[in-house]
Amino acid sequence: MSNSIFDLEQEMLQFANVTDDIELVTKYFLEDSKWESMEPALADALMNKYFAIKDLYEIKFNNMWDTFEDVCKEYHIAHKLAGLQREEELQGLFDEK
Question: pTM of the predicted model, to two decimals?
């Protein structure tokens, strides 16, 4: 199970790159000379859309990450409790003799 959790964590961190990609595209529109002739109102509207999408995905990622951390905590608590229960059962076997 821990490998699955690790793999999931790595995939989630790759998902965070979406915001970097959006920022890269935004920077491209701001800095590339072929877009200099774009109407300022259109450029502002376009940039506002890109920034809004970036913000949206940052919020989604943060929510997902919080959920992932909660699931990991629950998993580790359950795993620890299962181990304690096994220890108690084994101790009970020795105590009976």
Answer: 0.68
